[in-house]
Task: structure prediction
Amino acid sequence: MMYSFSSHPREPDYQFGEESDDDVEEGAGADSNDHGANGVDVNVSDDDDGDDDVLLFENGVDYLADNNDGEQESIDASPQTVDDLRALTVNDLKAMLAARGLLKQGNKEELIQRILNPQDVDFKSKPTREQWKTSKAKAFLIKLLMDTTSDIHWKTPEEVWKSSEWFQQYPKHRFVDNMKNIKKALEDKGRVIEEDIKLISEELAALNFSNVTKRGHPHWHTHSAKKLLAEDLLQGRNVNMKPKEFHVTRPEFEEFPLRVFRGHIYQEQRKQREMPLKIAKRNKLAQKKYEQEVEAEAVRWHEACRSRTAR
Result:
């Protein structure tokens, strides 16, 4: 096995969270005057950062060997023919695949074909997860925190993180911080709501509400005629009818003067015409599904807590 010098030092391309599968052969010297186990001269170059980098060339593949931890990383792969690649070891092929971000599973021929003709499925894919601010995990956490009977109030943030796979999608230290922030925000919001309710109750108690307006007819927004009108217009019961005729179809409508009732007819027709019903229905279904998933996870979580407590 022949080694030769690489004429240009290269910076290692660090991949955080991944470990190299290949180790440098023992015997690669750390001094420029030393020789390797196979009688190979090893060149050591000093980078600006003061670290010594060992540059090797093996079977047509450049490697950068780090003296500190003994790891080597494939930098460039010059063999491009089947015969050249077959002359390499499986570890060499895996190093080339790792450098290109390709999967390393399979026999030698599969590795060679993946190097020569990579497909989309051959590239490493990272699992995707929802953004925390719009995730079901966050909604689930808020639901648990707002439930005063939930066991979550007796657990530490670390224990809560371990209690659900939804939470474990996110780094523990970030989840702990997020939980503390949400808990504080809910407590602050609760205090504000309590103060608002108290102020509103005091103001309402000081007011004398009348069942009729200054003009002597009922309040439309609290009257049953408002809901009945919306339903009748939606069903088309006013078709081919003038407002005067439609006015006498229900006793609730007749509690309002025709002039006032006619205005509410036009207002409701405009509302129903301009409202994007299909979009609203779609959003409603999506929200319902979202809430059902959160509710199902909440049920599973509570059952798991009770099961562990019973042991």
User: Anything to note?
Assistant: The radius of gyration is 36 Å. The first helix runs from residue 82 to 86.
